[in-house]
Amino acid sequence: MNDFIYHALPSRVVFGAGSLRHLERELDLLGLKRALVLSTPQQRAQAEAIAARLGARAAGVFADAVMHVPLAVAREARAVAERVGADCALAVGGGSTTGLGKAIALDSGLPVIAIPTTYAGSEMTPIYGITDDGIKKTGRDARVLPKTVIYDPELTLSLPTSISVTSGINAIAHAAEALYSQDANPITSMMAEEGIRALASSLPCIVRRPTDLAARGDALYGAWLCGAVLGAVGMALHHKLCHTLGGSFNLPHAETHTIVLPHALAYNRDAAPDAMRRIARALGASDAAQGAYDLAKANGAPVSLREIGLRESDLDTALDIALRNPYWNPRPIERAPLAALLRDAYEGRRPT
Ligand code: NAD
């Protein structure tokens, strides 16, 4: 056993079908009395239903969360929280909504309670992102880590299968990179492998039957584990590339992760053999990169950057941006192989 450091993050998780019923108890435990309920416009009805059951303990509903937390939206939400006298942000939704809760917390120090309804995993991390003028800035701050997370698979039954698959593979990407992270340790690696396994086995069941509550529970459990390792150890090439592509070309987050992952794994294949073996085993495949590609393709997810709107003429710019800021990766980041990776992802080729 090698030496390692494991830093546990302080959050409380309440897991189970129907666990939304514990919301009032969880607010009581934290001494919270006026929650501002956050959601995207698409989930307004869900947020309003939760606010209605909270009654006087809901300070209001702010249903304007959007992808990548634009600064203007974050400022508006902070102003609303102050105006209505909220004592916490209650984020009901995916990574976009949790991200808005974090942006409120960053400035105001208000605690965040998260009720995740996708598999993105943001609720388990102290990582925030705010986009200003087309540039997404991310950082880590202990204040933004949700104090309590309520995982209720019943709330994910309505998640469309297409988003279920891409956000599930987004979660798998956190765990895959955690397995070859510079600061990987036996605890996070165990969680990462189990997280990949839970998602890889449940996503096909969800595609076949979106209301399969047991599969929804397994996927949400996997998402929790994958989010936790994202919060605990550093990421590498895959996450940096997706950040570049999403931020610079406004590509959808979960789809971008789904498309790039097989190619990032192929890039790192020979530099991280033990991690690749564990990823492949968790995917039930003989090769990690091919297993990630097949999981996406077999479940109807996009496999090429072209089909989600990247233009061929953007590839050179993407390459330049990706090479601009050096970062750690198990294999050195070099222009020619990275150009080939981007080309493969653009075309949607199965990794060889
Ligand atoms: P999202 O939150 O944008 O949700 C996608 C869509 O699905 C939205 O319209 C949403 O309202 C809808 N939706 C969510 N749950 C639903 C449900 N149960 N039923 C019906 N519709 C539902 O997408 P996402 O992939 O969860 O999050 C992406 C964002 O999260 C990105 O901005 C990304 O950068 C961020 N993120 C951050 C971290 C972090 O640690 N900070 C981690 C992962 C992702």
TrEMBL record:
Top-level EC class: oxidoreductase
EC number(s) of the enzyme?
1.3.1.32
Molecular function (GO) terms for this protein are: alcohol dehydrogenase (NAD+) activity; maleylacetate reductase activity; metal ion binding
- For this protein, what reaction is catalysed? 3-oxoadipate + NADP(+) = maleylacetate + NADPH + H(+); 3-oxoadipate + NAD(+) = maleylacetate + NADH + H(+)
A Pfam family this chain is assigned to: ADH_Fe_C
Instruction: Please list the residue ranges annotated as the Fe-containing alcohol dehydrogenase-like C-terminal domain.
Output: 165-346
- Superkingdom of the source species: Bacteria
Known SUPFAM superfamilies for this protein? Dehydroquinate synthase-like (SSF56796)
Question: Which controlled-vocabulary keywords does the entry list?
Answer: Aromatic hydrocarbons catabolism, NAD, Oxidoreductase
Task: Report if keyword NAD is assigned.
Answer: yes
- Start and end residues of each Alcohol dehydrogenase iron-type/glycerol dehydrogenase GldA domain: 10-153
Q: Name one GO biological process term.
A: 3-chlorocatechol catabolic process
- Could you tell me which InterPro entries the record lists for this protein? ADH_Fe/GldA (IPR001670), ADH_Fe_C (IPR056798), Alcohol_dehydrogenase_Fe (IPR039697), MAR (IPR034786)
- Which PANTHER family does this one have? ALCOHOL DEHYDROGENASE, ALCOHOL DEHYDROGENASE 4
Q: Which family does it belong to?
A: Belongs to the iron-containing alcohol dehydrogenase family.
What name is this protein filed under?
A: maleylacetate reductase
Q: Which organism is it from?
A: Pararobbsia silviterrae
